[in-house]
Design goal:
This protein has about 150 residues and is of the alpha+beta class. The chain contains seven helices and six strands.
Length: about 150
């Protein structure tokens, strides 16, 4: 079974600009919550999309039917794989990718350096999604923000 770390290593080696969002991103901010998939917010410039497609295909995802334009316009769900993956060209509640990229947090995930959405961006995303599970997550994320803002005691 392929692991998240294997995919992230390939993305990093190809200089793909991505941000881990969703539940997997919580760990970079001090809270681990189980999830069945990996959500990536991806830069939608042409070069990044081409590199992303190449990495996905080398990892074993079949994206031959997805045109580069599809990666810029639609959320792409890759579900029938060992590592379910959601690719987001935009995220409700978030500024554009470039703004989120500037605020990213770089952290280790299983021995691989990865880019994560900032805590403030995750909070904005969860607030905008506003599903019951998002409201529960939002409470925990806001507690983490209070602790962060308070600083060491």
């Amino acid at each position: 079974m392929r692991r998240i770390q294997d995919l992230l290593r390939l993305l990093n080696d190809a200089d793909v600009r991505y941000l881990i969002i969703g539940e997997t991103a919580f760990a970079a901010h001090g809270w681990v919550r189980a999830t069945a998939d990996l959500d990536l917010f991806v830069g939608d410039d042409e070069a990044n999309v081409e590199c992303l497609r190449d990495v996905l295909m080398s990892f074993g995802y079949d994206v031959t039917d997805a045109r580069p334009e599809d990666f810029r316009r639609y959320k792409i769900l890759l579900r029938q794989y060992d590592l379910p993956l959601d690719l987001h060209p935009f995220v409700e509640g978030a500024a554009d990718f470039e703004a989120c990229w500037r605020r990213r947090v770089v952290a280790d995930i299983g021995g691989v350096e990865a880019s994560f959405a900032s805590l403030d961006d995750l909070i904005a995303m969860k607030r905008a999604a506003d599903r019951p599970k998002d409201r529960e997550d939002l409470q925990q994320l806001e507690r983490l923000k209070q602790l962060r803002d308070r600083g060491p005691e």
